[in-house]
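note to self: the first set is below, dont mix up w the second
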Amino acid sequence: MLKSSVAAVALMAAATPAFAQSGEVEEVVVTGSRIARQDLVSSSPVTTVTSDDIKVVGATNVEEYLNTLPQLIAGATKSTNVTGQADATANLNLRGLGAKRTLVLVNGKRFMASNQQGIVDVNNIPASLVDRVEVVTGGASAVYGSDAMAGVVNFILKDKFDGLMVEGQYGLSGKGDAQDWSTSLTLGTSSDKASVWLHVNYEDRSTLRGTERELSRYSTIDSNGTFIRSGTAGRVGGALIGVPTPNGSGGFTNRDYALDNLVPRPFITATDTNYELQQDYAIQIPLKRTNVYGRGTYEFTDDIKGYVEFAYNNVDSRAILARTAPNIRETTNVPGLPYNASFVSPSMAALLAARSNPTAPFALRFEAPSQFPKREIAFTRDLYRVIGGFEGHLGDWKWDASYSYSHLATTEVQKGDISRRTFVEASTPSATDPTKCASGNPRCVLVTNLTNWSPELVKFLRVDNLSTTELTEKILQANISGSPFSLPAGAVGVAVGAERRTVSSADNPAPTLLDFASAGFGERNATAGEYDVTELYAEAIVPLLSDLPFVDYLGLELAARYSDYSTAGEVKTYKAGGEWRINSDVRLRALYQRAARAPNIAELFGGLVNTYPSMTDPCSRSANPTGQVAALCIAQGVPASAIGSYQQNGAAIEARLVSNANLKVETSDTITLGAVWTPSFLPGFNLTLDYFDIKIDDAIERMGGGPQGTLAACFASNDVNSPFCKTFTRSRSTYEIIDWGVPLANVATLRTSGVDIAANYGWTMDNWGFGGEPARMRASLVGTWVDKNTVKANQSAPEVDRVGTVGGDTPAIPEWRWTGQLAYSSGGLELAWQTEFLSKVKDRKYANALAAGAANPKAGIAAPEVDAYWYHNVRAAYSFDRYTVSGGVRNLFDKQAPRLSSPIEGNTDPNTYDVIGRYFFMGVSAKF
């Protein structure tokens, strides 16, 4: 026998309505609006995740579960290890529009960012403290301010606690590794007027290295349809890079030469590219995390309550990386190796002497020998957040005023680096005494070989970098909501408020990084800046009609926000929409929102970041410049006589990524259209369909999409004064590109559209119970169909649709994605099964070939497509007396991640596909 559940079935529901037996329904505020309502159906599509949902996958970090939701495209996770970074951050990327365009709230208030890009690390929000999470689609700047371009993720924390609770969980993979254990303690007490409670959580997550899984044991590349081991030219013994070599017809061609005991020979890609970046990279980044959260309230009167919240988060992450592979070459800031370097053998000297300029510096790449220590990297982050305020009533009006202070301090320690400047010093012999360094530095030890270094040379070359970053945010806000008057169709709801926010930050890189001389880590300038914003906002819900045939309710939802940024100036955002409730079963909703995102500190004030992208200068002889290209080269400063003879030195060009203090705000337009069906003949069931269309104009991205795109756009413009060509100059002596700064600019356009589907059903079964009690069942299915997800890097660039693709710099964006769950509970026993589906995707190489109209687009691609994926997770729990024991399995059938022809890292997309494998977890809790 089936009976209707009297509880709200909010499991992953998009704007799920509340169900109650009788009596007055408490007014609540649903994410997407600041107006308290009895009706939980919002005009904005809202997906709700409960703490029980998070437990199904054994998640100790909220991102582990949230990234299974179809609305989110994989952001940074515990498997993110791009370029060896080990900061163990986790972020959320709604709709694939970028984590910086997803606003994260805690209890409806903006949460502290974890870096200068304004991105929140959700590791700072312990899963054990979360009551529920509400995810809103589309721009919500009119309600919440900047950053809410793709939507809002609001973490609602547990509000009050009496007694003592101790919880613990331990997990490990089916192979006995990737251990993760956490424990938490919560204690509190309350009275009629006051409450106070404290929550402490600690997590210790172990390292899982890429070498411990077959997929990532070695890095591979797709070589004309076959996966082969890959690496870089930084081989043991070294390689000469880009040596201008006589080509037999009076010219020169840049060639690479492998060094065997300092004897050069032509570089053979198949056998000499053997520096293994995969060596020690982690596919589960280690983490030690401590979270402390406290809240206290006191009712001064029936209408005034004070509250204070305190949060402290400490994250410590460490990793050992492969030995550095220095790329020693002449750059804007560091000289190249002298032609008579101390380790140059006679055969090397003969090769260098045959160049067009025999005394020019040369370039070398090599893997540091075994005597040099492996690189280590460690991040320590301490975040403090204090909020104090008052809330209460003025008659029927609710008000709230608060002040928050947040401070983040990050320390980054990098060990095992080599300064390229110091290496050049140690390679330059004195003209008077070739056994000593030309610098005269008494500590300097000459480099005489590339395979066996003395302790003295290691000590001289080794550099340990210490960098710090601090970020401070102060927010003063006040708002009031209520009903000023009523219309025939009902009471008008209004919310108004003001907010003042100040953000400041300073990044202080280590000296070697500041010198742009690091061989093993990312170089950058210092970044320091601040901005403030003053905002006023108002929101209204206006009932127009009610209690009419086919119009049970018809109302408008309106909001507007005025923002005045010290950097970006005045910004206006707004929304307009409404709801049409045809009857108690069917509701329709529509909303238009104009949102904005102001540039963050890194975008406005970020220091230079050095990169060395592999590309060919169009003016170089190997590019065969003719016609308009040759004419533009001459206009840029390459003499006509050098056209056809000038050859760039090396396969890479130094490009510096720079910020832009003159950036404008990004703007977006979001349209959502939806329907909610709650059939009266099937109590406990609801179905929602929501169409979304989000377009972002003036998106802040790298000019031209990056250095390669900028250079291509320069020569496509055929105008020496084009914005793209003006980003660089050329050397008067070598004619190479120098002083190249690729800035950020408001140049890109992003757009995504699709349909969200959610179905939920809750019911009871008298005959299927346990322990003599009825069984309570919950079933849910939430999915997304993505129609488009396009990027246009600039006005002259082609539009690229990323739907149904994976690879390169883009995680998988399946056309279809579903998450379903079935849960059973009775007599203290809980059983749950969850499944996730990702539809087939094309590798980026294959997608590009299709877009180019290739006759055989799969030719030469080892893995042109990734088949559809299913993941399954199960959990069981039993509660008795004051204890609960639980356990489960994630990735029940041990589904392995795919090997990609265009991998993001670790030969795959580790943030979308599981790279760890079957995972077991077990836990226990006790409440006293």
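second set (the one i keep forgetting abt)
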Amino acid sequence: MPTRLKPTRLEYVVDGVKLRSQLSTAALENLGDEQAQRKAALDILKAALFRGRMIAKERLENGAGGIETARLLSGVTDEVISALYDFTTVHIFRARNPTEGERLALMAVGGYGRGTLAPYSDIDLLFVRPYKQTAHAESVIEYMLYALWDLGFKVGHASRTIEECLKLSREDYTIRTSILEARRLTGDERLAAELVQRFRDEVVRGTGAEFVAAKLKERDERHARAGASRYMVEPNLKEGKGGLRDLNTLFWIAQYLHPGETMERVMQLEMFDRREVRGFIVAFDFLWAVRSHLHFTTGRPEERLSFDLQPEIARRMGYGDRGDAPAVERFMRRYFLIAKDVGALTRVFAAKLEAEQMKMAPKGISRFIPNRKVKRKPLDEPGFSEEGGRLDVDPELFRQDPVNLLRLFRIADQRNLDLHPDAFTAASRNIHLITSAVRRDGHAARVFLDILARGRDPRTTLTLMNEAGVLGRYMPEWGRIVAQMQFNMYHSYTVDEHTLRAVGVIADIAAGRLPEDHPLATQIMPLIADREALFLAMLLHDTGKGGAGGQEVAGARAARQAGERLGLDRSKIELVAWLVEHHLVMSDFAQKRDVSDPRTVADFARIVQTPERLRLLLVLTVADIRAVGPGVWNGWKGQLMRELYNATEAVFRGGRGSDAAAALRRYQENAAYDARVRLARADRAAESWGDAMEDAYFTAFSDEEVLIHARLARAARAAGSAAEGRVRPDLNASEVVVAAADRPRLFVDLAEAITGASASVMGARVFTSRSGQALDIFYVQDVTGAPFGADDPRALQRLADALAGAARGEPTPQERRRQDLGRAAAFAITPTVMLDNEASETATVVEASGRDRTGLLAGLARTLSDAGLQITSAHIDSYGERAVDAFYVVDAAGQKLTDARKGNALRAALLTTLNDAESEPAGARRPLQRARASVAR
């Protein structure tokens, strides 16, 4: 990290006296030529502004603080604007004997009024006049605004009398807040002072409570718009939860309740703890540093810390790789820890300022806050009380028995109470009482497991515990993942936030709140014998991220440590550790392997071993995927999970001693026999087609779908090929079925046709009948992730027609497009290729992973076809910026690829295809720092 620079004096950066002298000289040298005067003045001011910004940027990059940078930029802007005002009123529109009506004060308002400014922020100005607009004032204001626009400022401005300011501020909280921060830049001192004084006397006085309520409501609405979590991995630095606006809200409330006092002075009040004050300053400084770097990096008022900017900002702020932790993840963890602190500070400061206001006006404030109950009601739990619907506690209780730090949250959950800010603060300040002895205390373990596995709302309660620092202190394994971020586009939240959401999903499934989204999980949840193990495994499933030995092994090790400390019996400890170690297994088998292949199910059943583990793993996997982020879980993944679950359950029904693959074959044979009988009854002409289809086909589709496929196959025999598409809302995709005579490169031609239609394949099923007819089913989405053609049925029909043509061998127009990778350009992705001859009894499984892009599936399929291989099954998956495609392939003789030399050649060819995306130019985007994409899931 750069060494911290000492603050510099503003006059060393911009000399206001010298600046005004230069402007006066320019005015005199161009006397009589107003255009020349203006041009010369703007050149001087631009130079001063550029110098000031460059010095601020250089100092920031060399270790200057964020607050200092913001104040320096504000100071430079002050000098430029006040010098422009002097130039305008002295040399352009001089009033030698100004009348009372020609008085004018120029004030900075809004964020600029606080004396802090980001490099490319707007500036808000208020021109205050005593009476109605005069020609002189109008000319001065117009001249200045045009000059400021020419200097590159984006100016928010208003010209009002004092009466107008007071009237509007009473009606509009935004204007009231803006004037609250008003600061005189130049012009009539008496006019500016009168506005400030009358605003305090006539608007602020006696309205503290309503202002506090309005600002807190405004904050909640802003959070809802920006995303309710402060742990979204592309945070909005200004408007997001835990960002600068939250700190500014505290600043406004403090200013409003203590008019005339600076924030520094307010913080010196006895009610604020020194650690809290320091936390406020550290958070403010860090966020301002990040914001300034963001603006300087992009050259615009960018407030979102997007993926493509994160590595560059990390570099500029001096973060480096440390062990397995890349610089960008270290920087982002620091950001999220700051955001967490901001959340705690907001609770504490707002409550204390509110309490202070109540002391100052005990008789009247309650009328401004509806339903406010200030009476304290003792509970039947000694030391705990309820105040206004919030749970409070005597801090001495924690010192008497530290387990009460956990009981506090259990009581809040049981009684559906929010925590009183004083209770939250007391818990945060006393977490040091949670020692190793408390962590091994049996009573503490029971309280904790009650919250986790039997709580009314475990996600909310655990979130509060996490915010207060209690959860990480009680569970050290959890503490290591707090605010941890994985640098990839797959995860939308930090590791701890993702996990808490996953715990909430399990609680929702258990309560029967998600039957439509997760019918199987809802159905089997009552059959799970050990919910405690399920919830604990979910809480600990990602604690191995970044650990020695890999995520799964390190996580299982952490789970065993936690279980032993909690005093669980050995069988439960091993069950929790097994679930943590294997929490990715079910999704890998369902999404990357052919579930209709008996070897797939046999291998999976061998890992799972018991029906109870199968049930636990399904619910755990569903919750884990759903909690990754919006849109990650979909009906297609649900269907794959259900197919794997049902096939594995069928194996278990065959008995402990049975051969798993043989049991599945019997299951498929029986299901296929029954399906063929039903098909023959429904459509006699389809009987021969049904007899020719493989048994595994019938376990994947309903009777209605089988009938549709049979009809399509007949049409294909008559026309050479046939294709039909339909929207499947239940799968969040459109299904396109193609029937044609099988031939080499058929899958390649179909994949290229899909690419040409700008559709994205999320899944595919490939079947070939014993009579040589192919039936390929593709599940496709558009670029937004919606079912392809859902809003445009003609587009879906065009895609079906294109696929039918491609199946007949008609050429598909191919257009090589340069792709701007956008935010994904920040990720350095290492392609991998794996060949596995053990995963299937009849085919070689080829798994290729690399940067996701349009046409990747077609490119990989073409490479496989060029190697003389036939694709018998394809499985497509993506994890943000990374695609993982698995193909079951055989050679021309229908055998596995066993020749090592050919295998190495295929691996090299596939890596070349995967690397094509890495070599593509990223449009005209300016190159920024890149970072290795995390492969953790």
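remember for set 2: The longest strand covers residues 870-879.
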